[in-house]
Structure formats: C-alpha cells, structure tokens
Amino acid sequence: MNRKAVRSWLWVDWANSAFTTTIMATIMPIFYADVATKHMDATTSTAFWGYTQSIALIVVVLLSPVLGAIADAARSKKAFLCFFTFMGAIASVLMFFIGEGDWILASVLMIIGTIGFSGSNSFYDAFLSDLVPNEHDRDLVSSIGYSFGYIGGGILLAINLLMIQYPESFFLPDRLVATQVSFITVGLWWIGFSIPFFIHVKESKREGTQSRSVVNWTKHGFQSVGKTIRNIRRYPELLKFLVAFWFFSDGINTIIKMATIYGREVGIGQNDLIIALLLTQVVGIPFTILFGKIAENFGAMRTLTMTLFVYLLIVMLGFFMTTSLHFYLLATAVGMVQGGSQALSRSLYSRLVPTKHQAEFFGFFSLSGKFASIFGPFVFGLIGQLMNSSRLGIISIAFFFIIGIIILSTINLEKGRIEAITGNPKDDLYIA
C-alpha cells in the first residue's frame, strides 16, 4: 500500500465534502427557501427543492454506468474525476450570482453541481481497491476517508457560519452577500484540496489501450453497460447488496438533502439549523472511525445494519419534531451513523467486486445509490405538496430503510467474496 497515495486520496473526501455540507445540506437549502423561492409558500419551496435533487440524479443515473465502463476500458478514472471536480466547483462559484426569486438559476446550478459531485465520487470510490489491496485495511481506510470529509466539510462550514453571522468582520456588507460568498469558498476549497490527489496518485495504463473518438468511446460505453448488467447478474450476492443499497441509500440521501429545508418549514431558525448541522460534522468525525473499529470486531455487515436501525429511529422521531432541541438531538444521531454507514457500504461493496470490473461495477454502485435517490426527494416533496405538510413526507423514508435491512439480512458475505475472487466460468463471454 502506497501510503502517500492513500493520504492524497483521503484529501479528496476533505475537498468535496464542502459541497455536501455548505451547499447540499446546510446553507443552500436555507438560501433556496428564503431567497431563491422567496415568493413561494414553504411547502411548494420544499417540494421544488426535492424535485431539483431528483432531476439532477436522473442525469447522474444516465451518465454513471457509461462513464464507469469507459474509464475501466480506457484507464482514465483520474481524468474523469478531475473533469467532474471542476464542473462541480465552477457551478458552486457561479451560485454567487443567485438573487431573490432566481429559483430557476438556483435549481440549474444545483443540478450541475450535484452532477459534478456525484460524477467525481463515482471515480473516487473506484480507486479504493487499487490503493488498498488488503481487504482487512479497507474498512478502516474507508472510514478515515469519511472522517476526513467530516473534518474538511465541517471546518469550511464553520468558517462560512462565522462569515454569515459576522459579515462586517470579513469585510462584507451584509449576511446576504456573505451567504453568496460562501458558495465561492466551496468551489475554491474543492479544487484546492484535490490537488494532492491529482499530483501524487498515479493510474497505471492498460497495455494495448487504443485511443478512440468521443463517439466511439460513447458507443463502447453503452455496449459495456449491457455487458455490465449481464455480468452483475452472475454475482448473486453482489446483486443483492446493490438492491439493498438501492433502498437504504435512498433513505440516507433523502435525509441529507431534505433535513434542512424540512426543518425550516416546521419553524426551526436559520442559526439553529446551521449550528445543528455543524454539530453533525463534529460528531461524525470520531463516530465514523469508531464504526470502522466496531466493524473489525463485530463484522461490517452487522455494524452497517446497526446504523440503519438508528436511521429508522431518526425518521420516526423526525415526524414529531417541533423544537430546535429536537433538531439538535436528531442531527447528533445522524452524525453518529452517517459516515459509518457510508464508509462500511463502500468497503463491503469493494469486497464483492471482481478486480477486472472495478471502475465499471463501482459506476453501478454509484448508479444504484443515485437511481434510488431520485425517488426519495421526489416522494418526500410530492407527498408534502399534495398533503400540504412535509411531516407526512418524512414517514415515507422509513420504507426505504426497512426494505434495505431485510435484503441485507439475506446476503452471504463469504459466498460473495468467493464469487468475486473466482469469478464465473462464463464471465469471459461478456468481455470485449
């Protein structure tokens, strides 16, 4: 294991988590509700935010398997990661220009930024198996990566919170401008802290790889998608894990993307929302590493299931939330399990993926989560809009966790490892 390369890989989590914390989860939802959709009622604003997330993920779903297949064949994961990093960072910077009533511009930039974030993460995750060959080390390294994300995202969120609360101290005229400037800081942070990865992480070139035109690579990508679907069906335990991930990831991502704007709708103040979500970051740092350690003793699958039961409890209690204290308690609970559940999911999946299909199958890993995440925010927003209350929308999230837990309980991890190592005798029939 190249420790310098692994450390450089960890900085990407530090860098791109700024988008998750400042834009996706905290400041942008409030800004969207208070400024971009100022003339809408609260329920409609919440619904539009959910629809925006769903549209972004539809595009990501269409791109993920194609890009994963292309990167696997061309050995260009690093180039694609760079491209999507800049896409997301530039979209973040341009959010500075969103003003009162500019909900269309806000939605479009949010969609572009989400595509950049999700696209870069697809290729970022695919490096884990390359950089950490030892399966035993992956749980811990993956957990440390998420902890790095919590620290990096939390530090920038804290800086932005101070800037919004005390704009004069940062030589800014008011809180509105300070909020807009916070979007610029995300783009700069994202690019700046990704530089170590671009410098120190090397990607080996596959012998015999030929240069092709964009059209040919696209055609090759779509052809590979069909082969990927057929190949995944030859790994039953991997397929079951993907379906389980499809459900519980939808629940997790819906909580991340809708919690702030939901809290705003039920009457939680802006300062409490931001501070509580900053608390989520702080709590997440030690607990993400802790769950990595727990997994070493009790098994990654049992530990992951434990975190999902906590999420299920969070959703049920969220229905009754009325005060800022409730929001603080739920935010703390989310911080305890968010990083652990994501890190363990990534690590477990890496054990079930055949080496020769790493980028391609990790594209489907991302695809599975992103495809599922289309439905959560959409259902949340639609139920809230139809019933004129988002409280009923939050109950729907419980369904995703329950189904995910049930499917996880049927997976034989040892059998899945053997399938990944030995492969299927017929697998070569589907290799170009």
Automatic annotation (TrEMBL):
<dbReference type="InterPro" id="IPR050495">
    <property type="entry name" value="ATG22/LtaA_families"/>
</dbReference>
<feature type="transmembrane region" description="Helical">
    <location>
        <begin position="104"/>
        <end position="124"/>
    </location>
</feature>
<feature type="transmembrane region" description="Helical">
    <location>
        <begin position="238"/>
        <end position="261"/>
    </location>
</feature>
<dbReference type="InterPro" id="IPR036259">
    <property type="entry name" value="MFS_trans_sf"/>
</dbReference>
<feature type="transmembrane region" description="Helical">
    <location>
        <begin position="361"/>
        <end position="386"/>
    </location>
</feature>
<protein>
    <submittedName>
        <fullName>UMF1 family MFS transporter</fullName>
    </submittedName>
</protein>
<feature type="transmembrane region" description="Helical">
    <location>
        <begin position="273"/>
        <end position="291"/>
    </location>
</feature>
<feature type="transmembrane region" description="Helical">
    <location>
        <begin position="392"/>
        <end position="411"/>
    </location>
</feature>
<keyword id="KW-0472">Membrane</keyword>
<dbReference type="GO" id="GO:0022857">
    <property type="term" value="F:transmembrane transporter activity"/>
</dbReference>
<feature type="transmembrane region" description="Helical">
    <location>
        <begin position="48"/>
        <end position="67"/>
    </location>
</feature>
<keyword id="KW-0813">Transport</keyword>
<dbReference type="Pfam" id="PF11700">
    <property type="entry name" value="ATG22"/>
</dbReference>
<feature type="domain" description="Major facilitator superfamily (MFS) profile">
    <location>
        <begin position="1"/>
        <end position="416"/>
    </location>
</feature>
<feature type="transmembrane region" description="Helical">
    <location>
        <begin position="144"/>
        <end position="164"/>
    </location>
</feature>
<dbReference type="InterPro" id="IPR024671">
    <property type="entry name" value="Atg22-like"/>
</dbReference>
<keyword id="KW-0812">Transmembrane</keyword>
<feature type="transmembrane region" description="Helical">
    <location>
        <begin position="79"/>
        <end position="98"/>
    </location>
</feature>
<keyword id="KW-1133">Transmembrane helix</keyword>
<feature type="transmembrane region" description="Helical">
    <location>
        <begin position="303"/>
        <end position="321"/>
    </location>
</feature>
<dbReference type="GO" id="GO:0005886">
    <property type="term" value="C:plasma membrane"/>
</dbReference>
<feature type="transmembrane region" description="Helical">
    <location>
        <begin position="12"/>
        <end position="33"/>
    </location>
</feature>
<feature type="transmembrane region" description="Helical">
    <location>
        <begin position="176"/>
        <end position="199"/>
    </location>
</feature>
<dbReference type="InterPro" id="IPR020846">
    <property type="entry name" value="MFS_dom"/>
</dbReference>
